[in-house]
Amino acid sequence: MSESRLLGLVASAEEHAIFIYTHRRMAITADDVSLEDIIPISLDFAVVEGKQQSDGRYEAGTPLITYKDNELELKLPFGSHSRLFLSEVNKAWSGRFFLMCSVYPPIKHLKGSIRKWRTCKHSNIFWKILGLCEMKQCHIIIDNITYETLLHEQHRASMVTPFRRSALLPGRSCNQQLYNASMDFLQSRPCEMFLSRSVLTLASLLPLPLVCASSREDRDDLVRSSSHTASNKAQILTMPQFGLRDNLIKCELLKNEDLYTYLESFSFFLGTYNVNGQTPKESLRPWLSCTLHPPDIYCVGFQELDLSKEAFFFNDTPKEQEWTKAVSEALHPDAKYALVKLVRLVGIMLIFYVKKEHAEFISDVEAENVGTGIMGRMGNKGAVSIRFRFHNSDICVVNSHLAAHIDEYERRNQDFKDICSRLQFRQLDITQPPLTIMKHNVVLWIGDLNYRISDLDVDSVKELISKKDFEALHSFDQLKRQIDEEAVFVGFEEGPINFQPTYKYDTGSDKWDTSEKCRVPAWCDRILWKGKNIKQQHYQSHMALKTSDHKPVSSLMVIGIKRVNSEAYKKTFEEIVRTIDKMENECIPSVTLSRREFYFKDVKFMQHHAETLRLFNDGQVPCQFEFIQKPNETTYCKPWLTANPPKGFIAQGGSVDIDLEVFVNRSTAPDLNCGKQQIEDILVLHLERGKDYFISVTGNYLPSCFGTSIQSLCQLREPIRDMPQSVLVTDLTVADTETAEKPLDIPKELWMMVDHLFRNAVKQEDIFQQPGLRSEFAEIRDCLDTGMPDSLPGSNHSVAEALLLFLDALPEPVVPFSFYPQCLECCSSASQCETVISLLPQCHKNVFNYLAAFLCELLKNSASNRLDVTILATIFASLLLRSPKKQVLAEKRKTQEFFQHFLATGSS
Amino acid sequence: MAKKTYDLLFKLLLIGDSGVGKTCVLFRFSDDAFNTTFISTIGIDFKIKTVELQGKKIKLQIWDTAGQERFHTITTSYYRGAMGIMLVYDITNAKSFENISKWLRNIDEHANEDVERMLLGNKCDMEDKRVVPKAKGEQIAREHGIRFFETSAKANINIEKAFLTLAEDILRKTPVKEPNSENVDISSGGGVTGWKSKCCS
């Protein structure tokens, strides 16, 4: 079975796996691909480069992958993509091997995730990949199709909508957008992905035997932990690891190149010579030094440098040095040249020299080759190429030797196309896609292109040559015809040919081929160019050289090269940086607040107050807000305050209402009553990656007997709210002084409630069992806190509940915390219980006895009020005897038992 | 490797009494503009600006703080992580100058030990209303061994110079790394300073 698949190399921190995707048609959108299988790169994994063929050689480009007991044969497309992919796989494997050797505990992540992924649809794939990957650094190499896939995937994940806008920004190359999009998509989940297209021969595609169900939780955790937040360009902009800022600047620099560059002409000498396997026998000066002035750059190409089998099979030949020497000696004598680069594929060689003074302006020199010979890839035919940057222009020189034979012009066209698509320069910045020939500002193409003269017999050809009617002859030239039909060299130019055909001569002479074949003369050796600001100064052959059956050809080109005006460059760069800084500043999340100050007036015990804070997102990006803690505080606000919701998300232009609520309960009342705390707080509203806002919350609290200690209340002869705050702070906390009046026996507020109930409610049915009304409680509270009326407002049930709330809110219960353990110990003995009570502080003892007496009075009327000892003990024991810690059930029973003694004695 | 568009990230902080012009100083530097209406900063704001110093591109992240007294305990928590602090007073406001020693104590207590400090006497365009002589500013700066500039955000006097000088002083203390790896990793400290990171972790 042989099917096309997409392959991806996915890396987590320590682990790698090959992900195999099926795809329908060319994978363009996310819908087109789905994950089929995962091959973990573990110790049992191996890649054999190429399978052994019948002749014993290994075939390149069809690596065999083995893992566990399975085999996969890959047919990778020829080219640097595949080579890069395989080298990354090998790197991954050797890294794994190293880890295993150092007894590193194996990580289950990949293995555990396999079963689920085998069946999952594509929509989840990338998230799951992300779930796998651990944060560190982001590093992506993907080819174009996969960029596209990621982009669509990202759009489906609707969380990241803001990016769409930026992805459509004009003036950026498509690749750039996709690249950014994929970066955006991957956001803060760095993973290393490396994808390559390939055709798989699936020798066997068995379920992997590595799946272990126990690690399912691991996987789920991982998937969960891949939670993501909405992203946007501003955020990405501030994340240096994604390089968006750098890319934006690079793009802008490229777009504005005209502002800081100017053209300067340089002369390029291009030469091509098919030497028919000969060694240099004569000086090459007539060819290479034919110009009046020394050219700035030399690019000299040879074909058929060595026709031996050794050269063919081992790509090794002594002639490389011989011819290089011959060239070096023949360069223009009026200047000094530096050899920058030499590249050779079997017999195809290209040498690149530059005048010494220009050498410092040459950079990014790369050489590559592509074989198009036997089996479509051997080096007897093909091309070598050198790319370089000269000042600010990118130049690519190609020397090719295309297929031979008069009828094979279509094969030559195909060779040209193969060279253009397969020849790729790996970029220094490996996050960038490889560079192809056509992406250069200037392409200079030389070589034995092998196009012939057809449809004209040999005699007519020779007659036209003798008449020097090259124009007429040119119309029979296959290359001219193919170019006219746009079948090859689209976009290239060639100068007019004013020299006789350069092939085929009897070696050592200027005589046309006299062999049996008696070949028709042809312009095999040609020089073409593509790009702006190029002028051909000459285009000629050199008859003087007789070493080969070809004549060398040369051309002098004057090319306008972009030079950088450093002043203007600096200005442009600064302008761009300023613009991007501005953009980044504008993209800092920002909100407006409806109010910055909140005043809560007359806050009372157990009374709910709320104000609304409206946040409006006036920034250019969505934002996440959260109230955060201040230093040395455990919560974002004081316990009597809440903000609801305390965190959230606001879309651009959207708003959120936050309720700021103040509620003083029994745990916060004591400190407020005595003035230790005020209604005063500052909330810090933090925007993710943005500003912080301070919100002041203030107010005045009206002290209450609720939440004030028995001791303090006994000191107060006046209503608590009539007391100035300063008196409350000092007098309530300080014990008796000699000058002070004798304290009250019991708090007057307690007396008022109990007396009210005694007078009005001893026969009240279900007293202490039915709830009161909240509004009536508020009236009772205000009444107790502000005056000493004869009777209290509200129903009996409300007064009863107020009494219970009063006892509940006491900072120190009627039986103080310190006596609690003692009470539990002696609960079974009535006399011991009484002894404990006798030891209480005076006012506490008074309150206890007063309440007990009152409850006994109630029990006398149990026929009407339907109360009994158990009910009252249950209700009051938990209020009078409170545990300083959390009360357990057994303790609760003991407190009831304790209190029952006092109710029983009273009733007897 | 691809040439990074900035090599270093410096975090700067503006502090000083309310109304001395911290926000205006920042606005002048980042946007080259001035706004006469006074809006008290109630919170923490920041802006970025990329500058070039000694051939290095430096991204400055400048934090503007609320000057009001009631926020002081909160704002001091933002000192941590700042590499440079600009302490601003108003030459027409004696109180703001008197408070300088209090602010300096705050820095000692809450900022990193090696923080680079600078004193700015702002509003120096208002010579007719001056109450703090330049010499007094110079003297207190000398006593504490820090740089001093009189600035005006309104008239654009010494603003850029002050920021660049502060950045240069920080750069001088920054260890020079290998040319290939001189990009600092700011991913861990990019967005937030102070105690936010502490309370989230």
Automatic annotation (TrEMBL), chain A:
Record EC number: 3.1.3.36
GO CC terms, sorted: cytosol; early endosome membrane; phagocytic vesicle membrane
Domain Rho-GAP, chain residue ranges per copy: 730-908
Alphabetic keyword roster: Cytoplasmic vesicle, Endosome, Hydrolase, Lipid metabolism, Membrane
Keyword Transmembrane helix: no
Pfam family, one: OCRL-like_ASH
GO biological process: phosphatidylinositol dephosphorylation; signal transduction
Location of this chain's protein in the cell: Cytoplasmic vesicle, Phagosome membrane; Early endosome membrane
Gene Ontology terms for molecular function: inositol-1,4,5-trisphosphate 5-phosphatase activity; phosphatidylinositol-4,5-bisphosphate 5-phosphatase activity
Domain of life assignment: Eukaryota
Principal location listed in the UniProt entry: membrane
Family designation: Belongs to the inositol 1,4,5-trisphosphate 5-phosphatase type II family.
PANTHER family: INOSITOL 5-PHOSPHATASE (PTHR11200), TYPE II INOSITOL 1,4,5-TRISPHOSPHATE 5-PHOSPHATASE (PTHR11200:SF300)
Protein name: phosphoinositide 5-phosphatase
Organism phylogeny: Eukaryota, Metazoa, Chordata, Craniata, Vertebrata
From TrEMBL, chain B:
EC number: 3.6.5.2
Reactions mediated catalytically: GTP + H2O = GDP + phosphate + H(+)
First-tier enzyme category under EC: hydrolase
Disulfide bond keyword on record: no
SMART domains: ARF, RAB, RAN, RAS, RHO
Main localization (coarse): membrane
Record-linked InterPro entries: P-loop_NTPase (IPR027417), Small_GTP-bd (IPR005225), Small_GTPase (IPR001806), Small_GTPase_Rab (IPR050305)
GO biological process terms, semicolon-separated: protein transport
Source taxon at top rank: Eukaryota
Keyword entries, A-Z: Cytoplasmic vesicle, GTP-binding, Lipoprotein, Membrane, Nucleotide-binding, Prenylation, Protein transport, Transport
GO cellular component, one term: endosome membrane
Family, per entry: Belongs to the small GTPase superfamily. Rab family.
Matches recorded under NCBIfam families: small_GTP
Name of this chain's protein: small monomeric GTPase
Originating species: Perca flavescens (American yellow perch)
